Amino acid sequence: MLLCSLTFSFVIFQEHTNNYALVIHGGAGNMSRLKHDTLAMKAYRAALEEALEIGESILKNGGKSLKAVEATIRYMEDNPLFNAGKGAVATATGTHELDASIMQGATINAGAVGGVTRVRHPITAAIEVMNNSPHVLLVGEGANAFAESRGLEMVDPDYFNVAKKKRNEKSGSGIIAPIIDKMGTVGCVALDKMGNITAGTSTGGMSGKKWNRIGDSPIIGAGTYANNKTCGISCTGHGEFFIRYAVAYDVSALMEYRQWSLSKSANFVIQEKLKKAGGNGGLVGLDAKGNIVMSFNTAGMFRGYSKNGHRETFVFGKGTMKF
Amino acid sequence: MLLCSLTFSFVIFQEHTNNYALVIHGGAGNMSRLKHDTLAMKAYRAALEEALEIGESILKNGGKSLKAVEATIRYMEDNPLFNAGKGAVATATGTHELDASIMQGATINAGAVGGVTRVRHPITAAIEVMNNSPHVLLVGEGANAFAESRGLEMVDPDYFNVAKKKRNEKSGSGIIAPIIDKMGTVGCVALDKMGNITAGTSTGGMSGKKWNRIGDSPIIGAGTYANNKTCGISCTGHGEFFIRYAVAYDVSALMEYRQWSLSKSANFVIQEKLKKAGGNGGLVGLDAKGNIVMSFNTAGMFRGYSKNGHRETFVFGKGTMKF
């Protein structure tokens, strides 16, 4: 049996510019029980592959990074394996409150929704906030109403309950739901052939959350950040730490102000600063040259990347990775 | 008549450590009509003086920066001249949704509430979130319920309507309410004799806001940030820009990663980055040595500081300032 390192990160270097790159995550956490559930593991790996394929096909054909991020995350929101959209975990009272955000590196423009309860694709609601409102962050019933006014697909709150049941059925061992407890956020960062970076994140938030808690996923600078000058970042983990440490923007600040590389910056924030503070989680990111980083300080992180026609997906640390 | 510069910032240098310092703002904006309303001007200056006196008396007697920030902001929340607490501006539908946040530089701990409608002192609700919940940000009815469960003073939503009427009566010329339109947020940053920095911000948000819009005030890293290693910052202005540019944390990042001074960092963010992006507003801040900065790129900003037993308050730029 291979050993699983508790902290791990890696970088794929890219020499060419004017190409595309895509990186995704499906949450980080203590998912060690997955190791003994081949069926569940296969389902997650297949879902990550499919998500990458969707974004890749858009980027390969010269599509915009915004479109690639939206399509990739919409797929993950519809897949009940992940704690986002359909698969969102329940609050303490059994309801579902979803958060999402988007940011474009070319314009430093951003949009986000927090605590939406009737929107099928929160990532699209976040894009609508960015493109068709003067605001960055809308929450609760106001965000629902705005999404509806923009013609987005609305669902009955029960839609998310059905997903929960399905998720439990899908796993032979019944362990999928607990695995993604608290940390099943999804995220995607893309670089298109025009050199533009977009980052997006979507989540059902913390399982059993109360009092309309908002995590880092809809907070620009915490869960999501993008700037063509530096990088695009999407985070997953214990959201309160990611807010307090402005994790996504901090990676960009280190690159800009210390001239550090993407990987050095990301690893410093996740493996040093955040770990020291007791904050569990990880991030995926890329820079304008297509360098990709995936860094996490938990047992595992659902993740994958695509570039130069090559795709790879991973769940655990170095021990189970294929380079 | 003195000229009023559209952009201005200044710094008071402090040689001593182990002392206290306090800096406040009551919003930034185009408040040029105030120049011809002596009555209103006097009322604002008196309110700023009183706010400073409250925080100063706590710090002078060895009290904690958290207590000083809370007491100072509670006073400003109760004063209908400011767009916070009682004086909060109305949403598009005539309701009042209040935001506030707090952060402590010693622990990098933080708390915030967004869109509360029944809490008399949102700053105290933010402190309760920080100290007595596992979360950083609660919004809407959940945040109301949490505040109530902590025994905070709850008010009828009409409390804020009454304040609006009173505010209009108070001004001889009736121009006070429009002056603080959009940009009357209040904020306070304090350094206590133990060397600990606390920053807090409270607001009624953007006048006429829709869809449960959340601005930068309850967003840690955007409207508020504190770190004993660098600085404490409270912002005011067009919140969407402050979120996209992670303004409060950016000042700290420049100090930490570029070894810039507080004033150089703050001025770069407000006068260069934000101005270039078209973002109007300003900030107040201080570092662990008691250096104070107040920087804004609008016509004026209600502001003041206290240190070494000396208090000063200002509304417009250099032209009307007394050093």
Would you summarize the structure shown here?
2 copies of one chain form a homodimer. With 323 residues, chain A is an alpha+beta fold.
CATH class of chain A: Alpha Beta
Q: Going across the major beta sheet of chain A, what is the strand order?
A: 5-4-3-7-6-2-13-14
CATH architecture of chain A: 4-Layer Sandwich
Order of helices and strands of chain A: EEHHEEHEHHHEEEEEHHHEEEE
Radius of gyration of chain A: 17 Å
Task: Characterize the main sheet of chain A.
Answer: 8 strands, mixed
The percent range for strand residues of chain A is 25-35%
Tally of distinct domains of chain A? 1
Fold and architecture overview:
- The structure is a homodimer of 323-residue chains.
- Chain A is α+β, with helices and mostly antiparallel strands.
- Chain A has a single domain, classed as (Glycosyl)asparaginase (Glutamine Phosphoribosylpyrophosphate, subunit 1, domain 1, 4-Layer Sandwich), CATH 3.60.20.
- Chain A has helices at residues 38-60, 65-78, 122-132, 140-149, 158-170, 176-179, 239-244, 247-258, 262-277, and strands spanning 8-12, 21-29, 98-104, 109-116, 137-139, 186-191, 197-203, 213-214, 224-226, 231-237, 281-287, 292-296, 300-307, 310-316.
- Chain A has an 8-stranded mixed β-sheet with strand order 5-4-3-7-6-2-13-14. The first copy, chain A, has a 5-stranded antiparallel β-sheet with strand order 1-12-11-10-9.
- In chain A, helix 3 (122-132) links the parallel strand 4 (109-116) and strand 5 (137-139).
- Chain A is globular and about 45 Å long.
- The two termini of chain A are 19 Å apart.
- Chains A and B meet through strand 4, strand 5, helix 4, strand 8 and helix 7 of A and strand 4, strand 5, helix 4, strand 8 and helix 7 of B.
- Strand 8 of chain A pairs antiparallel with strand 5 (137-139) of chain B, so a sheet runs across the interface.
